[in-house]
Design brief:
The chain is of the alpha+beta class and 606 residues long. It is built from 16 helices and 31 strands. Bound molecules: zinc ion.
């Protein structure tokens, strides 16, 4: 093997100070003076994070002598010209327990390449090697490594030399080190590892059984796995947390340890269903966004925002298939799937922002809006995940109808994989719409104009009739009502709400979001206000919700609240809660044709 021209070395050298020591040796630096930089963002998470902020004490040397290095901007360094191999060394501060960055302490080390490896300008296409070293000390002697990066001399799960054919590949293989749990199953003819870090008591065998079914469902749908040698689910189990990030041959997941199944349990709890949905989502990305990707991402420009209107297709379609694969694989029942779908619809129906921002706009502005949500988010923006997944559902139903059940969204995904993902061809803006027309055999311009570029609600009631399912709406019964199910007592008095999201505060009930057109907003209450009394009686989060709901629609109440340190009085006209909670019901008198259509949709892909 020829020596890579760029050689990195990384060591979790000071776990107690959360510092990785990193070096980068450039065999043939630019004779005019080498430039290097740190990425500003990590693919899959569309927000500027400026990873250079965690670089400490960067130094350069050549010929055994220090070399001058100056900072050009927030992320870029310029080294003085030299005619010998250039060595850059620096520390990385790693104290963010998320799937997007790096984290290091005495219990484990985790990093994404975008957080730790300098990008060598002009040599991004050159092969590189990484020597991953173990921290020093007896307590680290049993640490192992989990990464999908190609090993050169490193033994399986061992420290040593790894390699990547270019910078893009290097930073797409996150690395976990520590005393993790490990189990392996096979899918698509290759090993799939599940690695769990953090305290947990998960039933690893059961995870393997369920994940194998889900992975096989996706592989069967696309008819093949991309060319990878192994796949790894890297899981960090914590008390509270949720997140996932997709990579070409692995995914990093953060979940609550209570989401994982315990030995002896056989039920699919809601928490475990959420975890499986997350795994399913990230695995689907192995095709959709890691290989079928927007032209704007080929190649990625990690120095600045990269805008595309297409995130609905990459996140929304993926969000549609994540839960669908749970039912298609037989891991959950159709009624459980319909509950999940009803909850997604509820999340969309509860935001007035869906009438102000289109999904295409949400996608384009993800960098400054979706990823930087404030208290006004439900009023002003729409999610390209949730509404995007409903566009995918509607598109699936439309294709099935226009082709008399001969084709479906599955065919569109297979076409995208064969013509774009597999050959590595970027997908131009709006190109997917033309491909959808081709598969459906009809012109869908009007559909995309209304629901993707426009802000109309999707005609779900109509579309779901073809599969014998009724789309129903009702008011939320309380703040914990996520939708997806009918209410038990339909004869109860009308539900009355404040029109705000409330959390407990030591001095009362804090409004963290105030919804458009709701009683709280009309009366002048604002996010951040702390309600202390209603009609002269002290309030907390729980009794505020209960008390409000004990009134009849049309009643008037007086509320005292602090805005910052000023006490203010508000008069609220209470209304019946809006019907913004969705659930789906199987139509028991569906025709045989509708029942067959439902089976074709929820059964294994053909
Ligand atoms: Zn995603």
């Amino acid at each position: 093997m020829t020596e890579p021209t760029i050689q990195y070395r990384i060591c979790p050298s000071q776990p107690e100070a959360h510092l990785f020591s990193v070096s980068c040796t450039i065999k043939a630096p630019d004779s005019q003076g080498q430039r290097v930089s740190m990425p500003a963002w990590i693919p899959g998470s569309y927000m500027i994070r400026d990873f250079a902020r965690n670089v400490i004490c960067l130094k350069a040397e050549a010929n055994g002598q220090p070399l001058e290095v100056i900072k050009l901007d927030k992320s870029t360094w310029q080294c003085a010209p030299c005619n010998a191999p250039l060595i850059l060394s620096y520390d990385i501060y790693a104290w963010d327990l998320s799937v997007r960055t790096a984290h290091l302490d005495q219990t484990h080390a985790y990093f994404n390449g975008t957080s730790v490896f300098l990008q060598v300008h002009g040599q991004e296409d050159k092969p590189c090697s990484v020597e991953i070293q173990s921290p020093q000390g007896a307590k680290y002697q049993n640490w192992r490594i989990a990464t999908a990066m190609k090993a050169v001399t490193a033994k399986p799960y061992g420290f040593g030399l790894y390699s990547a054919s270019n910078y893009d590949e290097l930073v797409d293989h996150p690395v976990e080190m520590g005393n993790f749990s490990l189990a392996t199953f096979e899918a698509g003819g290759i090993p799939h590892d599940i690695v769990i870090t953090g305290q947990h008591r998960a039933d690893m065998d059961r995870l393997c059984v369920d994940l194998q079914k889900i992975c096989n469902t996706h592989i069967n749908m696309f008819r093949e796995l991309p060319a990878i040698e192994r796949y790894i689910f890297l899981v960090m189990a914590v008390g509270e947390g949720y997140g996932g990030l997709e990579h070409r041959a692995s995914t990093s997941l953060l979940c609550r340890r209570d989401d994982l199944p315990l030995a002896g349990e056989t039920q699919i709890t809601e928490d475990y269903r959420t975890f499986l949905g997350l795994c399913s989502h990230e695995y689907f990305h192995t095709w959709n966004v890691k290989r079928i990707k927007p032209a704007a991402f080929t190649p990625y420009d990690l120095s600045r925002e990269t805008h595309t209107h297409q995130l609905w297709a990459f996140e929304g379609i993926t969000a549609y298939y994540d839960d669908l694969a749970l039912v298609r694989s037989g891991v959950i029942e159709p009624t459980s799937y319909l509950e999940l779908l009803g909850q997604t619809m509820t999340r969309v129906w509860r935001g007035e922002g869906r009438f102000k921002q289109s999904v295409a706009e949400s996608s384009f502005d993800s960098w400054t809006k979706f990823y930087k949500q404030d208290e006004s988010a439900p009023n002003h923006i729409v999610s390209y995940y949730t509404k995007g997944s409903l566009i995918a559902l509607a598109l699936d139903k439309l294709i099935r109808q226009t082709t008399h059940q001969q084709k479906s969204l599955d065919d569109l995904m297979r076409l995208l994989w064969q013509d774009y993902g597999k050959p590595g061809k970027g997908l131009g803006e709006r190109e997917i719409e033309n491909l959808a027309n081709k598969i459906a055999g009809v012109d869908l311009t009007d559909f995309f104009a209304k629901y993707l570029y426009g802000t109309e609600d999707l005609p779900l009631a109509d579309l779901l009739t073809s599969v014998g399912i009724n789309f129903c709406l009702r008011p939320a019964i309380n703040a914990d009502d996520k939708g997806g199910k009918p209410t038990e007592n339909s004869t109860a008095k009308p539900v009355v709400t404040l029109g705000a999201r409330i959390v407990n505060d030591p001095s009362g009930a804090c409004l963290i979001q105030v919804f458009d057109k709701g009683p709280a907003q009309i009366a002048g209450l604002a996010a951040g206000d702390i309600v202390v009394a209603l009609n002269g009686v002290k309030m907390s989060k729980d009794n505020l919700e209960k008390t409000i709901n004990s009134y009849l629609p049309g009643s008037e109440v007086k509320i005292h609240a602090f805005r910052r340190d000023e006490l203010m009085e508000f008069t609220l006209q209470l209304n019946e809660a809006p019907s913004d909670t969705c659930y789906l019901q199987i139509n028991e008198s569906a025709t045989p044709e509708q029942q067959t259509n439902r089976q074709l949709w929820l059964g294994q892909s053909s």
